Amino acid sequence: MIDPSSSEESDVTDDPGDRGARSLPDAHGGIPIPSGGGGGTGVMAYQVPYQGSSLGGVSSSFGSGIWSQGSLGTSPGTSGAEQRSMSLTATGGGGSSDSCSPGGYLSRSNSVRPSSPSPSLASDKDKEDSEKSEKEEEERRKRLQLYVFVMRCIAYPFNAKQPTDMARRQAKITRQQLQTLKERFQTFLNGELNIPADEAFMNAVQSYYEVFLKSDRVVALVRSGGCSANDFREVFKNNIEKRVRSLPEIDGLSKETVLSSWMAKFDQIFRGDEDPRKRPQRMAASTSEMILTKEQLYDMFQNILNVKKYEHQILYNALQLDNADEQAAQVRRELDSRLHAAEEMTKTKRNYPRFVVKEMDSMYIDELKASINLLMANLESLPVTKGSAESKYSLQKFKRYNKPHNTHNVYSGVAKLDASEDSEPALSKLDVVLVFALEVVVMEVKGLKSLPPNKIVYCTMEVDGGEKLQTDQAEASKPCWDTQGDFTTNHPLPSVKIKLYTESSRLLSLEDKELGRVILKPTATSSKAPEWYQLQTTKNCADKSLKIKVACRIDKPQNMKHCGYLYAFGKNVWKKWKRRYFVLVQVSQYTFAMCSYRERKPDPTEMQQLDGFTVDYCEQPIMEGLEGGKFFFSTVKEGDQMIFATDDESERSLWVQAMYRATGQSYKPVAPISQPTKLSNTQLSKVQGDADKARKHGLDEFVQADPCKFNHADLFKMLQKLTLDYRLNDIYTSMGWFSPGQVFVLDEYCARYGVRGCHRHLCYLCDLLNHAELGLMIDPTLIHYSFAFCASHTHGNRPDGIGTVLHDERDRFLEIKHRLRHLLEKQITNFRYCFPFGRPEGALKATLSLLERVLMKDIVTPVALEEVRNVIKKCLENAALVNYTKITETMKIEDPNMDDIDPKKKLDGLMHLAELCIEVLQQKEEYHAEAFAWFSDLMVEHSEIFWSLFAVDMDTVLEMQPPDTWDSFPLFQMLNDYLCSHESLCSGRFHNHLRDVFAPQVVRYVDLMESSIAQSIHKGFEKEMWKPQGNGCATSEDMLWKLDALQSFIHDLHWPDEVFAEHFAHRLKLMSADMIEAAAKRTLKAFEVWLKKGSKGTDYILPTEILVMVNVIVDFKNQHRYHATDDDFIDKIQAEVTRSLLEKLLGVLENTLSKLARYDQSSLFSSILSLTKPTDELGRCYVGFVRVSLEQIRQKVNDELYILNYFETWYAAQMKMICDWLTDRLDSSLHPYQLACLMNITRKAYSDFELQGVSETEINSKIYQTVCSRLQVEEATQSVTQSESRSMIKFLSNGASRASDGSF
């Protein structure tokens, strides 16, 4: 329950974004209590109660209005046709027609209609035009009369005020602005704006443009008037927040900074080239939306009611809206008439409205009287010195009117100051205290001739013997001061004494010399212009014709309504006819008194309270002793009469007018017709001129119309409808919420003219539903408040203190309830289109809450949750069909002409349709899931139904596809990925159906792929040319690509059934292992054939085909994912290939060493071969062979690791073979040729294999060191042998030479 004492404004007028957190009317009937205009006026739950003030709510139970005929004649239960025919027909007492009454302008307008031409002379078109013009004229007159009542509410409000804390409404986005925004963002995406942006921001803007700005749903939202610039900004902000959160962290750059930067760029694009000077204007417009002056309110309702400016001005002047006293008197007269109407109804027991319970008649009268009393209390609480609506009110003496009245006004008389026949307390002198502000300005004196020019003179002034004030000093040659003295007095006839002094020239004189004095008798009506007065000079003054210029002004107190001299004679007071000074004093809003005063007396000598009196013009009575006075008027009361007279006719008119306002009488005095004379009083002439102007333009009847003779229920219905139409067409996203100024006027109208709160809300609901059904955006929270009020009222819960329930109110409420339920179900069914992208914020959630309230049977018993679920379930089921149908309509997936389209194109269309379906459901999760949080299971069911509709089209399209085609697998992959990521839809009905549809196709696809791979292996290797391709040959690459594609395909399917997925994975692994094993066997077989073709000489070059086969085997070995865990077949194949290739290369070395063995000392050919003096040709040939082989392997084999391992193995095998060959020759020395070749081979092998990346530890092995040591020893031995041989040869050659010389 909401606390009835709490302010409703805080619950309703906050930003829509915060309304979701506000408390709505609960299910037990607790609703915010209207305030400001009264308990029953129905302040639409926006008015803030007056805190700390006696100005309370005015009940609208008096409200069924004064239905018509001046005495609540027409019942709200009357049929619509009867109400329309009687709504504005003014009638007199007793219900008879009164076409001449001021309020009966409709009957009068009918009387002056032009005669319809004869049917034989006038065409049907002329008749239609005539009827149309008559209806337009009738409508115009009705609007003018309504505007008069609205003007009075604005001019003198006493029940409501403008709320100051309502939610500020954003400006609308129009269709033209939307098109401009699209163009701006398209320009930015084309790179034509000088706004720096990275790729991520461009992608975000591109998504925003494609998904949001170009959406037809946004166009519909803009057309509905519920979209503001803030909505556009919030959608983009929500979008980029998700994107930024998914970005990786960047050192030194926070994500908040990125968001701020992106939003600043968005605002720059959004604003475009808008003039920054327009922003303060928009701010000012938004401020004017909050509080309006009276002039702004007049202008607004002129536009609402289509009233012309000149008509407003004439009505304004004729109604005297600038005269607060006249407006207060008008209110008093209206309340008096309504009270009499209620009493008449009580007496006649007729014209009661039709109630749901017959016994409500007496309660209805009590509520009427209570509401009038409350209005009187509100009026009485206004201070007499009312200056503005913000004044602090204090309640004066007030009496409630619950007893029958026998007079024509609401007052009971007080006969004399000291006695009263009523039980009411008499007024005392303290109640009529007047406080006058008196200004006395002494300006100059003339006639001072006897004083020396430099003599100092000055003046003193005093009021009623009070404090004296002195002017400045001046020289006698120029006695000017212009000094103002301010006084306060309680004397209506004060005495102002002014004296002129000069400085005394005598040394012993204690006082200055008085030259003259003057005594003034100003009144509140005296002239305020400066005047010359003759000074009464003293004996010591030689100048006898002194004059002084003085301006004396008296400000009339607010509680003094009129004053002046009258001749008076009465029965109980002023029993002697004589001229007296009278003051009409307002004690409170309902209490006035005529008081007579004497000079120098602050208190009245006699006074008469005017309660119960009626004033009117009269002729001179035939009585003795009535000397003085020419123009007479009288005040009459049962058993009492007072006669007054003035010497001026205009003065009499002013007195009668002032007393007419004070008495509150319904009868307006009419001055007797006299000879036309020029009015001497400007105030009277202005009033008469305004009345004449209104009469000239035919507007006097609206001014003089009696508000109590109109059906204000119908008038208010019209006013509220026109105001709502105006509001929905202004520049703000109001969504049905009135502006503060509109709320204020409607509240005041309901309170002042007695419109029932339930009637107000029912009309409001009807108007809101009419607009909502036409596609305009109406805030469901607003509908909720009004619906809760009406529900509470019709069930007797008294939300505004009104206990009577009309039969018409109940019937209309039931009708509206039915319409509202239908509308809510339609909106929930079309939630994607009624609330696109979650806009307006919180509207969908409020709609669901309102639906729950509408489903309640009463205001106490909460509706069963199951019933709410059933309604929402049905709506969501229909929503699935609506959403899918609108998508398929754009795709034309069900078009009969689609039968002739190629199945491939149909499948492409189905793919696009699936993308749209996924997008629709993702947007639902993002923007609408929160509102349906309490019904998440129903949203899942909604999605399943949506997908089931898609499944029908999917099955149809798939059946059209040719057999053994696999273009539909991307469809499965896309749908399956989405469904697997959605927790609620994973393994759901559609997901299982999708799995069942595609499972046979997947199995068939795998079977065909297995057969295709097996055939490619068989045929491919038979025709394989073993040319390098990829990491192997053409056949191996094709096989591995197929295996990889099949593996990726199965993996990317993310098959939802884990058992089936594991089965597929295991099957693919076994199949791949079998395929690779078969391919490896065929490769090994071909390898062995090719290896046998080459010779063992150093001219042997490794064929490219052999190395390609090595690559194939190595590539097979690297495909770990295809190998069985216990299968080492590929390892054996690779080892066999490596071994065979190594043997082939070592065979060349073996052949080379065998050739070197022919140079052994024990060899037969050693001496013969030594004669050829060979060098190391054989070693160089082998070194060349090694280098060519190394380069061939390096270029042709792809696996670097395999190459390095092979080189290490080959090097080690060579060194071992050389070492073994040398070991076999330990007992003999090497031939120099052998030594030269081996040294060349070992040295070049070391350097060449080092260049190929073989590590130092592998090259410089122990075997290599052993070989080097042996070769070094052999080299040393041969060096020694060669040295000895050279020495021997030299010795032999020296001996021979000596022998020839005879030296021996």
Uncertain regions: pLDDT < 50 for 5+ in a row? 1-118, 386-424
Report the span from N to C terminus: 152 Å
Structural class: alpha+beta
**What is the beta-strand fraction?**
5-15%
- From the alpha-carbon coordinates, what is the Rg to the nearest angstrom? 57 Å
Q: Mean pLDDT across all residues, rounded?
A: 81
Could you say which overall geometry the principal axes of the C-alpha atoms support? elongated
Helix content: 40-55%
Q: Taking strands numbered 1, 2, ... along the chain, how are they ordered across the largest sheet? A: 14-13-12-11-17-16-15
**Number of DSSP E strands:** 17
What can be said about the biggest beta sheet? 7 strands, antiparallel
* Count of individual helical segments: 40
Brief write-up:
The chain is α+β, with helices and mostly antiparallel strands. The chain contains 40 helices and 17 strands.
Indicate the topology:
Blueprint: H1 9-12, H2 16-19, H3 80-86, H4 105-111, H5 124-155, H6 175-189, H7 199-213, H8 216-223, H9 229-246, H10 255-271, H11 278-288, H12 294-305, H13 309-318, H14 324-348, H15 361-381, E1 436-446, E2 456-463, E3 469-470, E4 474-475, E5 480-489, E6 496-502, E7 513-520, E8 531-534, E9 536-537, E10 547-555, E11 560-570, E12 578-588, E13 591-597, E14 606-609, E15 614-618, E16 631-637, E17 640-646, H16 649-663, H17 682-696, H18 700-704, H19 712-728, H20 740-753, H21 757-773, H22 780-794, H23 807-829, H24 831-834, H25 843-854, H26 865-891, H27 903-927, H28 936-960, H29 969-981, H30 989-1022, H31 1034-1053, H32 1058-1091, H33 1104-1118, H34 1129-1156, H35 1166-1171, H36 1177-1196, H37 1200-1223, H38 1232-1251, H39 1256-1259, H40 1262-1301
Antiparallel strand pairs: 1-5, 1-10, 2-3, 2-4, 2-6, 6-7, 7-9, 8-10, 11-12, 11-17, 12-13, 13-14, 15-16, 16-17
Helix pairs in contact: 5-12, 5-20, 6-7, 7-9, 9-10, 12-19, 13-17, 14-15, 14-16, 19-20, 19-21, 21-22, 21-23, 22-23, 22-25, 23-25, 23-26, 26-27, 26-28, 27-28, 27-29, 28-30, 29-30, 30-31, 30-32, 31-32, 32-33, 32-34, 33-34, 34-36, 34-37, 36-38, 37-38, 37-40, 38-40
